């Protein structure tokens, strides 16, 4: 339990016991007249406040001035990161497909034999092999002919 003098100020004017007033420093019994020429603890003098205000204003103006450039740079970086993540996902999918095909290939002897014979043109004597001539490329409209050259306008 705290002593009584910390809860009540001593009444020197004869007005009875009243709760101690806060705001006059850390001592509850101090009168305002006693601190009349001194600053309270924690307050800064005006030149320091002015200097802090000017510094803060300059800093704020500098940040506002650089913000559009930094925002564009951040947006460009995010776009590049997104593209690289898509490329990375595609590469990961391709690697997984290759690993799966390699695993299937190693487990299937007949597939191994077929691919080796096909790649090295090692056919059995009883097999018939048809070698087709290369086909001509077709156009989007389905015709095999090259599109006609534009004719010169008639004078």
Q: Mean pLDDT, as a whole number?
A: 75
Count every helix, treating DSSP H or I runs of 4 or more residues as helices.
2
Helix content, binned percent: 40-55%
Cα radius of gyration in angstroms = 45 Å
Alpha carbon gap, first and last residue = 117 Å
Give the low-pLDDT segments. 7-11
Q: Could you tell me the number of beta strands?
A: 0
Task: Describe the overall structure.
The model is unreliable at 7-11 (pLDDT under 50). The chain is mostly helical and 155 residues long. The protein has helices at 46-107, 109-119.
Gist?
This protein is mostly helical and 155 residues long. The protein is built from two helices and no strands. 47% of the residues lie in helices and 0% in strands.
Keywords:
mainly alpha; elongated; 2 helices
Strand-helix topology:
Elements: H1 46-107, H2 109-119
């Amino acid at each position: 339990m705290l002593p009584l003098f910390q809860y009540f100020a001593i009444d020197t004017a004869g007005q009875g016991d009243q709760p101690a007033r806060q705001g006059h420093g850390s001592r509850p019994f101090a009168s305002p007249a006693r601190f009349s020429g001194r600053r309270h603890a924690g307050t800064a003098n005006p030149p320091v406040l002015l200097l802090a205000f000017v510094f803060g204003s300059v800093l704020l103006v500098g940040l506002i001035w650089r913000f559009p450039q930094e925002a564009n740079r951040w947006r460009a970086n995010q776009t590049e990161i997104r593209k690289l993540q898509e490329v990375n996902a595609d590469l990961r999918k391709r690697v997984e497909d290759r690993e799966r095909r390699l695993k299937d290939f190693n487990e299937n002897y007949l597939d191994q034999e077929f691919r080796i014979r096909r790649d090295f043109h090692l056919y059995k004597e009883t097999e018939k092999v048809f070698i087709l001539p290369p086909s001509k490329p077709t156009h989007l409209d389905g015709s095999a002919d090259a599109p006609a050259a534009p004719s010169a306008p008639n004078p």
